[in-house]
Specification:
2 domains; 69% helix; mainly alpha; 19 helices; 457 residues
Length: 457
């Protein structure tokens, strides 16, 4: 059930809002169980086989947390975290490790073509955050329903944002529709939903037409012209932004409709003037997770320059592996680790870089490394890079208008969250968003619906 589908927008969402509203109004104690049931229905719509995995994961981790609070057994939490990561590895990385093993002469590790459960990376990281904070004495115990809703809340279970327990647990006990700003929250939630849908349907999906054929040709070993390489690379740069930030806007908007405020995940990242600034603006909740639960755990900037650089490199390399079970993702992450390390050295040298130059260098680095993120192999990436660096025929037909419009929208103006909260509520604005929603529905009905890019991670 995609957020950009009729079954979600015209059936599941209205029914969910009605059921949640009735529970909140007449049986407040039923509100959280109703939300949890709706979340499992939403998750199970994709594939009922995934539901026992999600439910079992929630139950086991909750029981481990309760057992730890009773016994204070020191190894219980590390073993549970390791168990979560093993389950993730079995589903997501088993074939990747098999491919690495097969590089050794004489070995032949078989592939197990398991279906990757949707959202497994995201709900695994939610378990890790809570259990880590529980062991550190920062997190309290919670009942099963609240913990299950923290892990499985349907707007964010499939592709984030990554939410800390401290950001959401207290909100579950509120009376969201009794708040004085309830109507305003609902209005802003609807606006965010419409903006996110518009990003996906009008910008992200159309760019795929200029991106996918070129990368498919490269994957097949066909030559790619300079024009095609730059069209596909720049197109993907903005496609992934509108696709993923559009999903995030929808998730934040949907959560507001149910009385929950989720953290922002994007803050105009392509305006960043350094690579560190980029990662403070792009997939902000993942960046925060990597910083707090990996980078700092490895020593961070507290143990000298050498440890800091090694921790940056290791953190971003693991972040690349998290994005996909392939060496291209690993190298993509490693390059960002090296880039962040060079940024540390540059700042230590005290050399000032003009903002415009910093933006240009950052944008060029990010755009070029997106090739490794998108390409299906190093051979395909090399074909694209040859085109980017002029080692191929020039070609023609570069779709500059569509990409220029996308670039302008991505880099000019505030984030969707900031824009929606700046707009004053009034009838004209409500009418405008109603028209926008109808236009989006007409566009969805006219075209094929594309799955969100980050669903594969």
């Amino acid at each position: 059930m995609l957020f950009n589908s009729f079954v979600f927008l015209l059936a599941f969402l209205p029914a969910a809002l009605i059921l949640h509203g009735l529970a909140e109004r007449f049986r407040h104690g039923w509100r959280l169980p109703v939300l949890l049931l709706l979340s499992f229905v939403f998750y199970g719509w994709w594939d009922l086989r995934f539901v026992p995995l999600l439910a079992g994961s929630i139950l086991v981790n909750w029981l481990v947390a309760r057992a730890y609070l009773r016994s204070r057994a020191g190894l219980l939490i590390p073993v549970a975290i390791a168990g979560n990561l093993v389950v993730l590895a079995l589903f997501k990385y088993l074939n990747f490790f098999a491919d690495l093993a097969n590089l050794i002469p004489g070995l032949h590790a078989p592939h197990l073509d398991w279906v990757l459960p949707l959202g497994i990376s995201f709900f695994t990281f939610h378990h890790v955050m809570y259990l880590t904070d529980l062991k550190a004495g920062r997190a309290p115990a919670y009942g099963l329903v609240r913990y299950a809703l923290y892990i499985g809340f349907f707007p964010q279970v499939l592709a984030g944002p990554l939410v800390r327990w401290s950001e959401i647990m207290h909100q579950f006990e509120e009376r969201p529709y009794a708040r004085p700003d309830a109507a305003e929250r609902i209005g802003r939630g609807i606006m965010l939903l419409c903006v996110g849908l518009s990003k996906k349907v009008f910008l992200g999906d159309p760019l795929s037409v200029y991106v996918n054929p070129v990368f498919q040709a490269a994957a097949a070993g066909k030559a790619v012209t300079v024009a095609e390489a730059w069209q596909a690379t720049l197109g993907f740069t903005f496609q992934i932004y509108f696709d993923f930030s559009g999903y995030t806007d929808m998730a934040l908007g949907l959560a507001l409709l149910f009385g929950i405020v989720l953290p922002q995940n994007f803050d105009v990242p392509y305006r960043a003037t350094s690579l560190r600034d980029f990662w403070r603006r792009w997939h902000m909740t993942l960046s925060r997770f990597l910083r707090d639960y990996l980078y700092i755990g490895m020593g961070g900037n507290r143990c000298g320059l050498g440890i800091q650089l090694a921790a940056l490199f290791a953190t971003m390399t693991l972040g690349g592996l998290w994005h996909g079970a392939g060496l291209t993702f690993v190298v993509w992450g490693a390059l960002h680790g090296l880039g962040l390390g060079l940024g540390v050295l540059w700042r230590r040298a005290g050399v000032q870089v003009p903002a415009l130059l910093g933006w240009a260098l950052t944008a060029l680095f990010v755009v070029l490394t997106w090739v490794l993120f998108r390409a299906t192999s190093f051979e395909a990436a090399l074909i694209i890079f040859k085109g980017l660096f002029g080692l191929a025929p020039i070609g023609s037909g570069f779709k500059w208008r569509t990409i220029l419009i996308a670039a302008a929208i991505a880099m000019v103006g505030p984030s969707a969250w900031a824009a929606v909260h700046r707009l004053p509520p009034n009838r004209a604005l409500a009418a405008a968003f109603a028209v926008l929603f109808v236009v989006v529905l007409l566009k969805i009905g006219d075209d094929a619906n594309y799955e969100f890019i980050y669903f594969q991670f």
